Amino acid sequence: MKNKILLASILAVLSQQGYASDTAAELELLKQQVKLLTEKIEQLEAKTTENTPPKPEAPEVVKVEKKESKSSWADRVKFSADIRDRYEYIDQKGREIRQRNRIRLRANMNMQVNDNLDFTLGMASGGDDPVSTNQSLDGGFSTKDLRLDLAYFNYKFSDSLKLSGGKMKNPFYIPGKNPILWDSDLNPEGFALNYTEGLVNATLVGMAVEERSSTDDTLMFGGQLVFSHDLSDSVDFNAGVGYYDYQNIKGETPLYDGNAKGNTLDANGRLANDFNTAELFAELKTKISGLPFSVYGNYYKNTAADDLDTAYTLGFKLGKVSDAGSWDMGLAYLDTEADALIGTFNDSDFAGGNTDSRGYLLKAGYGLMKNVSLGLTYIDSEIGQSKPTQTDYDRLQLDFIAKFK
């Protein structure tokens, strides 16, 4: 391009000189020469363009996605805790009225080892009582005990099948959370296999109850099968059966502290019966005026006892404590004959923790704010229903409860 401009300038100059000299022939000759020279320059430029390598394109930018970093150990740990401060009033016929202040502190930590395995460590206040983690505030400001309350693992074979082992949370379904068979603080020890698929939930257990060096150990083998069914969009129905077979317990000292808790003893002060208890239950869940409502019934029979071998409960619950202003209340009737259930493991508050008892259990709660609530429990019961004279047992509990989760 620059060469063309230069030639055009030369041509213009020569043209002016040609006109000045008035020599037409010479001017025409110069024009022809310039034309030839211009064509040669164009040919050279075209050739140069053909031989010039193409300009390299900008390399394509490949976006490399950054791999997610492995989660830290803190992401695989879940911590929860709760504290309860309780005032308690106990009026048992024939004894002085008892009033006391008790606290309960529990702290649990769950650790996810991998996608299939996790384990839980739990500590709680109280002594070694299997059905209570309460600690009375007494002893002249003495220090209080904190003990191992949970230590178990869960291994998932699949989304439906799970194995648990150790000192674990109760693996059985409890309609209405009624404590007639299992106290709410009881954490059994052994192994539990749980299978859940669709509407069916099945649990099999093998529990170590009492190890003895001189005689056979007491073990418990049992299972529970629960069927769930949606009767409608707002009505759920649960029904189940269970069986709990205790090995080597007849003729042995009552479990834990030697207290029979209402069970029949022989002339030597040992348990007079074996315990193979069958369970039936049904539960209906729905809503009333937008509030959760459930009604339930449980029936138990010790198939290894000849007499005083049945127990049952009927109850309902309305509402649920969650945020500030929420509330719940429930009422249940419990009736337990002396040898229907093992007294060591049923509710430690109702009738003083004794079988051979019956009465009413009233509970209510009110939410002060999120995770903080008040609770009320009133027990109107009598002990010794199989005896000529019954003992009235009333108990009132007022609770302040705070949870961290």
Distance, first to last CA: 80 Å
Strand tally: 17
Question: What would you call the structural class?
Answer: mainly beta
- CATH fold topology of the largest domain: Porin
Radius of gyration equals 43 Å
Q: What's the SSE pattern?
A: HHEEEEEEEEEEEEEEEEE
In this structure, how is the largest beta sheet organized? 16 strands, antiparallel, barrel
**What is the typical, i.e. mean, pLDDT?**
90
Major sheet: arrangement of strands: 1-2-3-5-6-7-8-9-10-11-12-13-14-15-16-17
Oligomer: single chain
What fraction strand?
Answer: over 45%
Q: With helices defined by DSSP (H or I, 4 residues minimum), what is the helix count? A: 2
Spell out the CATH superfamily of the largest domain: Porin
Which characteristics define this entry?
16-stranded antiparallel barrel; 405 residues; Porin; 2 domains; mainly beta
Tell me what the structure shows:
- This protein is mainly beta and 405 residues long.
- It folds into two domains: 50 residues; 331 residues, Porin (Beta Barrel), CATH 2.40.160.
- It has two helices and 17 strands.
- Strands 1-2-3-5-6-7-8-9-10-11-12-13-14-15-16-17 form a 16-stranded antiparallel barrel.
